[in-house]
Amino acid sequence: MSIQSVLILGAKGTLGGQLMRLYPQAAGWDREDVNVLDFHALRAKVAELRPAPGAVINCVAFNDVDGAEDRPEAAMALNGRFPSQLAQFAAELDVPLVHYSTNYVFDGVKGEYEEADRPAPLSIYGRSKHRGEQLIAESGGRCYIVRTAVIFGPKGASDLSKKSFVDLMLDLSAKRDTIQAVSDEINSITYAPDLAAATRDLLEAAPPPGIYHAANSGGVSWFDFAREIFRIAGRKATVLPVPSTHFPRQATRPAKAILVNTKLPPLRPWQASLAEFLASS
Ligand SMILES: NC(=O)c1ccc[n+]([C@@H]2O[C@H](COP(=O)([O-])OP(=O)(O)OC[C@H]3O[C@@H](n4cnc5c(N)ncnc54)[C@H](OP(=O)(O)O)[C@@H]3O)[C@@H](O)[C@H]2O)c1
User: Do 133 and 119 contact (CB within 8 A), yes or no?
Assistant: First the structure.
């Protein structure tokens, strides 16, 4: 079923921007349109939408993994309580909700994680995203929790939108000949346009609500990711492998958290998406 009248929250972020390209008729709101933590304001704004939304896609999140260690309340409000309210609201409207979670809900011991594997987050960010998953599931609505990991792609339109690892590496290689990259952390990685397309396909296929994994196939360390970026982009930078302890950070990350997708059509290998992104940028 094709749904055109979609409401996209966080429309100026990395993923939200790609969803807006896929759904040109969507209502897309970001921080300057409404602070989603003011839920009364959000409800009132949704009530004015014509046509009423046929689905809600939530890309808003507290995404500062290290910053969340100092601001656990703020992380929990945006990643836990807000998605719970939104899920209840979507159920009232009788429309599906797509919400995104993260591979950081896992502790990294098992390495490769299917949808039904038990979360054991290591950080406040991971705990807040896991809390969001739990509260959404309790809402009983038509909710899709899509776990994803390390999003890259064109920068979002928001001034605060973070550069992806790919752009950071390209910037660094213009300034330095040698770059250190962490070799003992392995993640799935995800091209934002591929995730946006997978989201649209999910809404159209309308499978049972629940948890889904959507990331490009394969897993990679930051070190190998950086090497592949420079190889494809034809940059001469030398990449040196360093342990994660070389860059002390506030939040603990899983050592290996690859999202295994057993429910959705597979996304293409990350190398193919990276090559497409670098060719287009
Ligand atoms: N990025 C990753 O590597 C990654 C990895 C795993 C999972 N995810 C999940 O994937 C989803 C999309 O991530 P993303 O990287 O596309 O996010 P993003 O680029 O940070 O976009 C989020 C957007 O939401 C806006 N926003 C934040 N707080 C708001 C508020 N209170 N009211 C209204 N808007 C607000 C942000 O505005 P400002 O820019 O002004 O703050 C931003 O435009 C999130 O659920 C995230 O947790 C992301």
Answer: yes
Predicted confidence (pLDDT) per residue in 98-150, tens digit:
999 999 999 999 999 999 999 999 999 999 999 999 999 999 899 999 999 99
pLDDT digits (tens, 9 = 90+) for 42-81: 999 999 999 999 999 999 999 999 999 999 999 999 999 9
Residue 208's contacts (CB-CB under 8 Å, 6 or more residues apart) are none
pTM, two decimal places: 0.97
Tokens of 217: 């196939």
Q: CA-to-CA distance for 40 and 61, rounded, in angstroms?
A: 18
| 23 labelled catalytic | no
Would you kindly state where each structural domain of the chain is located, as residue ranges? 6-159+189-218+254-270
Distance of CA 24 from the midpoint of ligand 1 (Å) = 20
Residue 281: per-residue pLDDT: 81
Catalytic entry in 125, 144, 191, 212: 125
Q: Are 101 and 129 in contact (CB under 8 A)?
A: yes
Which top CATH class is 6-159+189-218+254-270? alpha beta
With a CB cutoff of 8 Å and minimum separation 6, the contacts of 157 are 11, 12, 17, 30
Instruction: List the residue whose alpha carbon is closest to atom 27 of ligand 1.
Output: 60
Write out pLDDT tens, residues 149-169.
999 999 888 887 888 999 999
